[in-house]
Amino acid sequence: MRILIATAGSRGDVAPYTGIGAGLARAGHEVTLAATGGFASLVQDAGLGFRRLPADPRAHGKAGGRRELMRTAAGFVTELGRGFADAVADGTDLLLLSATTAQLGWHLTEATGIPSLGVYLQPTAPTGDFPPVVTGTRSLGRAGNRAAGRFALRMADRVYEPAVAALRRRLGLPHLSAAAMRRRREEAGWPVLHGFSTALVPRPADWRPGLEVAGTFWPHVGSGERLPAALEDFLVAGPRPVLVGFGSMASGEGERLSELAVHALRRAGLRGILQSGAAGLSAEGDDVITVGEVPHALLFPRLAAVVHHAGAGTTAAALRAGVPAVAVPVTADQPFWAARLAALGAAPEPIPLRALTAERLAVALDLVTSRQTYARAAAGAARHMAGEDGAGLVAKAVERLVRAPGTPV
User: Fold this and answer.
1) Which residues are CB-neighbours of 338 under 8 A, at least 6 positions away?
2) Based on C-alpha coordinates, what's the Rg of the chain?
3) CA-CA distance, 382 to 44, in Å (whole number)?
4) What are the tens digits of pLDDT across the range 206-228?
5) How many C-beta atoms lie closer than 10 Å to residue 267's C-beta?
6) pLDDT in tens, 1-34
7) What values do phi and psi take at 109, rounded to 5?
8) CATH fold for domain 229-386
């Protein structure tokens, strides 16, 4: 079967799907991953075909408050919609759609008859268990959480509306609003497998049938991959260090954050690894080293702790390694995952990036590296996650579609 996985966003929105794709390829499928940005080598290194989607998340500015986040998202989605059909549908038997591409992919399935399956990295369906992941972490009560969840979906529909209208015209389909298509999908029980661990978010009991929590979608790591020699030398030269990195966040703040991180590490008496990321973190010394992109699966088990922006993938990777964290969320779903880490006991209370100081970071680092309760909580989550197989459940769902096309998975 020719399978196309479509996702859009930063590296954290793309890398998890390389593991799904590699697993499906081993099962004999022809797998292509369509993504935004410069991720061709990331995808091709996993043995997958690559198609570039017509958008670049870096071209739409930094996301700050909610209004700015909405404007940024709207600009990105509008660009994504242009040429989406040409990039995705050609020569495809099955579409696997992320949360960022599903609202466009649904219209392709209507126009072409290509079946599709949702593979989401975040919970998006309304539930009484927690508020929407992009609106904050304060519970509004069960009824309030559900109402807020429905409102968040309506806001997402508004973001996608212009791109949906243009795509439907491009496909020769009659007008149908983004909200109406969403209702159509929900009523049909469109299946979605969610790529996060039940250690962090148990499946809400009030979700409809067809919405499942599969377990984390781990990025592909090749059997021959190794850490850079300089990093390996640093790791063996002393006590376990702490990694500090903010992924695709904090662009342009590299100098400030680098100085802050080094000061905090030294104040806490810890060695450090700065991961450059979009912020451009950088420092060198006997007790600190700077690295670029390295596989979390190879590095994290050898750390004392991880300071990160609480993206879904980094949050899961630290837990999988049994390593405590200091969460420094910036925007979008990051406060949600940061709060989940703290509730699990694998991290202290989050420190929002705007409130981060060297002193606060040093205190938090001392806390997570000196009190074993944080490491024990992370180790417990790691044991739980070891029993989950997100990519395997996606592969089983695909096989059921192969055996009986058109039936629920």
Assistant:
1) 137, 310, 315, 327, 328, 329, 347, 350
2) 21
3) 29
4) 999 999 999 999 999 999 999 99
5) 15
6) 999 999 998 899 999 999 999 999 999 999 999 9
7) -65, -35
8) Rossmann fold (3.40.50)
- End-to-end Cα spacing for the chain: 16
> In this structure, how many other beta carbons lie within 10 angstroms of the beta carbon of residue 400?
15
- Within this chain, domains 2-216+388-403 and 229-386 share the same CATH topology: yes
Residue 338 vs residues 86, 327, 348, 367, 381: alpha-carbon distances, Å: 38, 6, 9, 16, 15
Convert the pLDDT of each residue in 94-121 to its tens digit: 999 999 999 999 999 999 999 999 999 9
Token pair, residue 393, equals 């459940």
Q: What are the domain boundaries of the chain?
A: 2-216+388-403, 229-386
Q: Tell me the CB-side half-sphere exposure of residue 155, using CA atoms within 13 A.
A: 16
62 has a pLDDT exceeding 70 = no
Coil/strand/helix, residue 35: strand
Domain 2-216+388-403 falls in which CATH fold?
Answer: Rossmann fold (3.40.50)
Phi, psi of 297 (to 5 degrees): -65, -30
Per 3-state DSSP, what percentage of the chain is helix, strand, and coil (rounded to 5)?
45, 10, 40
